[in-house]
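Here we describe the complex-level prediction in full. Unlike the single-chain runs in Section 2.1, the two entities below were treated as one system.
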Amino acid sequence: MTTRVQLEFFEGPLDLLLHLIKKNEVSITDIPIATITEQYLATLELMQSLNLDLAGEFLVMAATLIHIKSRMLLPAGDDEPDEDEGPDPRDELIRRLLEYQRFKEAADQLEQREILTRDVFVRSAAPVEETPATGFREVSVFELLTALRRVLDRLPKDNVHEITLEKITVREKMTLLLDTLRSKGKVLFEALFSEVKSRMEVVVTFLAMLELVKGCAIRIFQEEAAGPIVIEAAVGIDDALIAVENSEEEQHGT
Amino acid sequence: MEREDLKSIVESLLFVADGPVTLQRLEEVLEGASKEDIRSVLDELQRELDTQRRGVRLVEVAGGFQLRTAKVNADLVKKFLGGRPARMSRPTLETLAIIAYRQPITKAEIEAIRGVDVDGVISTLLERGLIRAVARKDVPGRPFLYGTTPEFLQLFNLKDLSHLPTLKQMEEITLPEVPGDEVSLENTEES
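The structure predicted for the assembly as a whole is:
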């Protein structure tokens, strides 16, 4: 499968770290570096296996985490128990995370204000109808990957299905998903994978979903943090269905 | 001018205005009325609209005064106007927050805080008129320094930058300053 999904990743390594810290319910000021590094690397691996474009910053952070971890594992010299050998190797990272977290909270506070064209209006202009830049407005990409990981873990372990001859294309999955949404309006993320039998199929379905989000045909959101992820038809869904069907015809020459 | 007349004309002016109206502008138009009188009727008008729970309220925003619909009516107003206003993504909002609190600030400085490229986000914010390049930093590369615009204040219903909510655990509120090493934009305006 050579489909490569280009996602403009607005979320970076710090977002991922904060997500992992929250998920593990630990504090930023005392990060369990080994656990976090392991999960961070696992996420990167998942992203790479999905052919998602990984910004260089993610790899730089991976190297940073590994470096911090190795420094923390260095034995204290001369039997001195817990003598201050110098600064905690995590300090700089913690400082960056805390600073970023402050601005995330500031953003939250701004969001809660009475916002023009969302909560209040003025006489002159109608709300500007703009095309959304990407579809990942309400759900972080990392939340999605966590949910995807859960789906993958639930699959039977045998690899027989890997050699299956069925050619499931991303386009077919996109059509399927669009049809489902047009009739049901919204579905749970997990429901997308209820009939899916192989790892390949899971990945293809996921990529199809990402493509549709990118094309603004569907929206993904969560009612509450760490709650069920819901997929919903968006404004562009009819156009998307036509576009996918047309490209399907081109391929099969019907 | 009679007080009730003054209140009435101020209301009319706010109604027709395009954007927030400064006290100064009102003073210019309403010759014979003092700043204090105008301020006083504005306060009274604001109180009345609030107390009577009217569909239109008076707010002080972006250094001026403006009539805005009551928040409680948001859904139906949106239905009436049609269209779906674009929601701001979290990364965009976070970047905007960084600029608001740390302005003037360069793209590289923003990226250092966010840990990721902000090119796309900066473009979006510039397009929406919420930020603008205010100067260039006097360092190699002479990168643009960004700051928020009056539109930003209007969007978030802020009187001015000093009314930004305090950053948590911050010692002081960061106000925009003009660093000594700045060079002002002359022929380098972004279009």
